[in-house]
Amino acid sequence: MRDLALRMLPVVDKSGVLVGIIERKEVLALSSTRSNALVKDVMDNPRLVFKPDEDGERAFRVMIELDEWFVPVTKEPSNKYVGVLSLTSYLKEVLNRDHPKHNLKAENIMTTDVEYVYPDDFISKLWRKMVKLNYSGFPVVRRKDMYVVGIITQHDLLRKGYTRIELESESGPRHGAKVSEAMRSPPITVKPYTKLVEVAMILVRNDIGRVPVVNDKGQLIGIIDRGDACSAYLK
Length: 235
Hints:
CBS-domain
């Protein structure tokens, strides 16, 4: 997950039959008492499973509705695992053809009620926010002016080696790590007048899940994630 920046991994038995999935958040949530846990101890049943012959556009619409970015695909009758359908695969497909929504502006599809964190927030506080909101990443802004200075995601936490996050302390003689120590900076951002096709290219080429929208002063005014981009194309 760390090396390949994967958000989800399918779990299969020796015959290749899908038996569950394990997500990045489950790995990050392991406690010290479960540090030797096996995959079977933390895996979950997938909310969605598709078959290879299902209608692709319908499948992507269902994924967006349920906020699932990656869904395993299995083949009947044995439920054998054959692949993963991702929102990125739809964006790649739509970028290879003309589409009437390519010229939509970022300001027309972005989410304006943006959740964000500060560089001096503790990782433990960030983690609680991720769990509470079920978000995998946030833009990082300066307190004084909302200038976007970075982005932080679950993958960044895994990349930095943070585990057992709920045990991090915000008080006492040894303070926990802060967002500034794990965030990626400078962040990749777009402007409100950036075209949807350019946003999609940025998401695909950089293999990122979201991109902050900033004004000409670099201040946060919105955000577009893979779901927003796919939804705009599918409407």
